[in-house]
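Need a sequence for this fold. Nothing fancy.
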């Protein structure tokens, strides 16, 4: 007998698996996405799925690509890397997609990489860790800023403010572990000294003990929290409960309104490195990125009736980069599309200005990041 969980999972797959305007098989361009619509990473994956559906609908209404309609084949991984790999295999062997825009987390992405590399199908990931693209993998690209970049941008800000002695409290999910290591790897470059280094597990619901150790460490001037999902919100609440007065820095792994909602009033004063999308309307009119982020934010919020997040923005960038590559290639041949993705130059997305090369499958630099602070439950651009 099929279990209730299995039946529900099957129903979810059927509900998500085909999104696009009906057309005959030869008139379709199949693009896949295995994305965490549900589960612990749903605050990342749900905006990705909503964005992809919105864009595919819009593209198809305007005539599609190369005269063909896009069919989005979207599976819900439930935030499970094992399911992500299984769906990647299905996208390749059964659905015959020409590319994937998906991979919500680093763990899911890395589980799927071998599948798309072996099948020689372009894979544009939404995962955060630099390991996704370093070392370079021929068929794998990503749109979010890397964890290493986040460390460097945060350390730039700390150094500018004379904050050189820090504590770290890092999540031990794939992203948290990676960013913890990347931050340690660039401390010397910025003259940063780590005086306390604590960690927490993906299912931990109280970090008071670790934060008490950090609070009791003499000389600490700031604290950084690499991590995503609910962990950083718990850290933030515990941080305020303990009355720790030094600045708390969070990563782009929490760049969504959900983090503020989960952390509550404790979020006020938190400093975060993130994409410009979170402060779209607050950018100066002279900023060349403003028209892009304002337009996406307006379309997303009108279509979904929910607040925009940078994670949906990563999907916006990924699908548009892919569509432009298909147009330049004038082909649905995965190899030709891959080559054109790698040649992406001067693409202004929600994440910043993208200039890819054979040795850089992301194409962003530190200018794509903004330093923000949460004030009165909203994002504000930090002043120098």
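Here you go.
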């Amino acid at each position: 007998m099929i279990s209730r969980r299995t039946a529900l999972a099957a129903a979810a797959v059927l509900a998500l698996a085909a999104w696009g305007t009906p057309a005959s098989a030869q008139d379709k361009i199949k693009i896949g996405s295995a994305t965490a619509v549900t589960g612990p990473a749903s605050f990342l994956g749900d905006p990705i799925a909503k964005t992809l559906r919105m864009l595919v609908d819009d593209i198809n209404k305007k005539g599609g690509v190369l005269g063909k309609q896009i069919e989005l084949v979207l599976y819900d991984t439930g935030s499970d890397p094992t399911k992500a790999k299984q769906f990647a295999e299905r996208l390749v062997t059964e659905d015959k997609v020409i590319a994937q825009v998906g991979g919500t987390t680093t763990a899911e992405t890395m589980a799927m990489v071998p599948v798309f590399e072996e099948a020689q199908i372009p894979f544009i990931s939404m995962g955060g860790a630099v390991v996704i693209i370093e070392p370079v993998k021929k068929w794998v690209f990503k749109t979010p800023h890397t964890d290493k970049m986040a460390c460097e941008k945060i350390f730039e800000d700390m150094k500018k403010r004379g904050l050189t002695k820090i504590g770290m409290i890092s999540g031990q999910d794939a992203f948290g572990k990676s960013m913890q290591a990347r931050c340690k790897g660039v401390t010397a470059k910025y003259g940063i000294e780590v005086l306390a280094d604590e960690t927490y597990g993906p299912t931990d619901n109280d970090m008071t003990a670790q934060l008490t150790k950090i609070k009791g460490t003499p000389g600490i001037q700031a604290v950084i929290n690499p991590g995503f999902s609910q962990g950083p919100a718990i850290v933030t609440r515990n941080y305020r409960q303990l009355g720790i007065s030094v600045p708390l820095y969070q990563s782009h792994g929490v760049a969504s309104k959900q983090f503020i909602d989960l952390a509550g009033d404790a979020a006020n004063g938190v400093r975060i490195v993130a994409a410009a999308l979170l402060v779209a309307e607050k950018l100066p009119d002279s900023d060349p990125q403003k028209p892009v982020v304002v337009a996406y934010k307006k379309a997303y919020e009108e279509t979904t009736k929910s607040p925009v997040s940078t994670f949906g923005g990563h999907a916006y960038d990924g699908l548009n980069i892919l569509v432009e590559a298909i147009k330049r290639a004038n082909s649905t041949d995965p190899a030709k599309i891959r080559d054109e993705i790698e040649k992406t130059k001067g693409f202004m997305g929600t994440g910043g200005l993208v200039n890819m090369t054979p040795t850089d499958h992301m194409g962003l630099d530190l200018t794509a990041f903004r330093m923000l602070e949460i004030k009165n439950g909203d994002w504000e651009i930090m002043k120098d």
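For context: Residues 1-15 have pLDDT under 50 and may be disordered.
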